[in-house]
Design goal:
InterPro entries: FAD/NAD-bd_sf, GMC_Oxidoreductase-Related, GMC_OxRdtase, GMC_OxRdtase_N, GMC_OxRtase_C
Keywords: Disulfide bond, FAD, Flavoprotein, Lyase, Signal
Bound molecules: flavin-adenine dinucleotide
Oligomer: single chain
Shape: globular
CATH superfamily of the largest domain: FAD/NAD(P)-binding domain
Pfam family, one: GMC_oxred_C
GO molecular function, one term: lyase activity
CATH class of the largest domain: Alpha Beta
Number of helices: 13
Number of domains: 2
CATH topology of the largest domain: FAD/NAD(P)-binding domain
Radius of gyration: 23 Å
Protein name: (R)-mandelonitrile lyase-like
Distance between the termini: 31 Å
CATH architecture of the largest domain: 3-Layer(bba) Sandwich
Length: about 500
């Protein structure tokens, strides 16, 4: 892509119709689409994913999440105040360049309740545009096929075969990994941009949105006129919008509320406590932040499994979605008989995982600043299971995991036999033996909570932005990413975020 350059090459000041902050899952399709008619600048704090084998392949998924550093790795690690480790994308393509690749459209309820102005015909066209470019039908191998059959035995029916839309029952979803296991992220959608109308600048950390007085015709007193960003050498640059242009924040559920706060857009007393000059009092910035709990179990399988990320999903009406993965992980010796040895000397272990994502969730948390340095993660708390409804959903889903685990379809994957003894091995948390015991099940849920990385909120529709995603009370500033969602769409959010990036140009072009 000839239009991608390093921030160090950007002049100290330049002008554009639209400035997109964050070349992530929603930002890239939005940039490609707007460039059909406008001069667009994308500012991305990370580098490019291409040429990074772990990022670009399905097999590199875990490695990418493990190889993190404070300022430069494609995955930026953070741990919420709840004590749960988590990750966010820091690379062109955003979190779609480090995720597990599962692709499934939003549920119908989401469009009704999200508060966003949706035209469902354009929604479908936008999904189709994305799917033609970067979505594939996965080929199920041993573990995923067995889980699909196990889900059906456990009563998660009907069987819907391969479907991209959200339907009750068991289905194979789409994948952004192709049949060779190569990743296709949102960054690939930039191939559809008009190259003479777009500039993508990487290693550009946006520090602040610049505001100025609005014209006398506007209801808002201030308007976004540009942003300040820093390159890797620490030099400052000003990217400005021409008259009538806009700044579009696509920095993700952590990045967008963080940037609003650093720009003086947030609760007045809170900003004052940080010594940040208040540009616009917006009391709910950083509030209503959510993360869907993930619970589940992993077992050691007697036969080596093919590596797989999520391909099959069980959509229940119990408040939980069931998914599965199988990983081959290096393991320290001594090696018991269940471990397999590769042709070298390393010892490997194949681990099969069954997990649930809690729908919603109902429990809300919040985001605050930890520093005025934008490169540092903000402080987040998700308050997992504070709402008893989430806990009940987890208990329901965990019982389904038990049903799947007991299914005949999984028989070949459960028991090792050596020295005439049959043994079943968990890696990590074990399911309660008596799954009818509510207290034990609730305890399991609380003890084993982790993240499925679908955190969202922080700039909610109706609280921080309006139904066209404009920041309430300001001109020329919108938020287009997962921070605007009150609930996570469908079983997994990336399809909806990719669609939304394509979709939102409609309101920009025709409102
Ligand atoms: C490990 C992992 C696995 C996942 N698996 C799946 C899955 O299988 N299926 C699924 O549907 N979803 C999955 N998700 C969730 C999904 O990927 C995210 O919800 C989605 O990608 C978020 O999109 P976004 O546009 O809101 O933000 P992002 O895609 O994260 O984009 C934000 C971008 O903004 C940039 N940015 C932030 N701050 C600044 C700044 N100050 N200046 C410049 N740039 C900035 C970031 O570097 C990033 O590129 C997973 C997520 C993770 C982390």
């Amino acid at each position: 892509m000839g239009f991608v350059s390093n921030a160090t090459e950007y002049p100290s000041e330049d002008y554009h119709d639209y400035i997109i902050v964050g070349g992530g899952t929603a930002g890239c399709p939005l940039a490609a689409t707007l460039s059909e008619h406008y001069r667009v600048l994308v500012l991305e704090r990370g580098g490019v994913p291409y040429g990074q084998p772990n990022v670009m392949t399905q097999n590199g998924f875990l490695q990418t999440l493990m190889e993190v550093d404070a300022y430069d790795s494609p995955a930026q690690a953070f741990t919420s105040e709840d004590g749960v480790p988590n990750a966010r994308g820091r690379v062109l393509g955003g979190s779609s360049a480090i995720n597990a690749g599962f692709y499934s459209r939003a549920d119908q309820d989401f469009y009704q309740r999200s508060g966003i102005n949706w035209d469902l015909r354009v929604v479908n066209q936008s999904y189709e545009w994305v799917e033609k470019a970067i979505v594939f039908r996965p080929e199920l191998k041993n573990w995923q096929s067995a889980v699909r059959d196990g889900m059906l035995e456990a009563g998660i029916d009907p069987y819907n075969d391969f479907r991209l839309d959200h339907v009750l029952g068991t289905k194979i979803g789409g994948s952004t990994f192709d049949t060779f296991g190569t990743r296709h992220s949102a960054a690939d959608l930039l191939n559809y941009a008009n190259p003479s109308n777009i500039k993508v600048v990487v290693h550009a950390s946006v520090e602040r949105v610049l505001l100025a007085s609005s014209s006398s015709y506007s209801n808002a007193s201030q308007s976004a006129i540009g942003v300040v960003f820093r390159d890797q050498m620490g030099r400052y640059h000003h990217a400005m919008v021409v008259n009538g242009g806009e700044v579009l924040l696509c920095a993700g559920a952590l990045g967008s509320p963080q940037l609003l706060l650093l720009s003086g857009i947030g609760p007045r007393p809170y900003l004052a406590s940080w010594g940040i000059p208040v540009a616009h009092h917006s009391p709910h910035v950083g509030q209503f932040l959510y993360d869907n709990p993930r619970n589940g179990i992993s077992i050691v399988t007697p036969t080596p499994l093919d590596h797989s990320l999520i391909q099959v999903v069980g959509v229940t009406s119990l408040g939980a979605y069931l998914e599965a993965a199988s990983n081959i992980i290096p393991f320290a010796s001594p090696a018991p008989p269940v471990f397999i040895r590769n042709p070298g000397t390393s010892v490997y272990l194949t681990v099969a995982t069954l997990m649930e994502k809690i729908v919603g969730p109902l429990s809300a948390g919040s985001l605050t600043l930890s520093s005025t340095d934008v490169r540092m993660n903000p402080t987040v708390r998700f308050n997992y299971f504070h709402n008893p409804g989430d806990l009940q959903r987890c208990v329901n889903g965990t019982r389904k995991i038990g049903d799947i685990l007991r299914s005949r379809a999984l028989d070949d994957f459960k028991f090792h036999e050596w020295f005439g003894v049959k043994e079943f091995r968990y890696v990590g948390p074990e399911l309660p033996v008596d799954q009818s015991n509510d207290a034990a099940m609730r305890d399991f849920c609380r003890r084993t909570v982790s993240t499925i990385w679908h955190y969202h909120g922080g700039c909610l529709v109706g609280k921080v932005i309006d139904k066209n995603l404009k920041v309430i009370g300001l001109d020329g500033l919108r938020v287009v990413d997962g921070s605007v969602f009150k609930v996570s769409p469908g079983t997994n959010p990336q399809a909806t975020l990719l669609m939304m990036g394509r979709y939102i140009h409609i309101s920009l072009c025709f409102e």
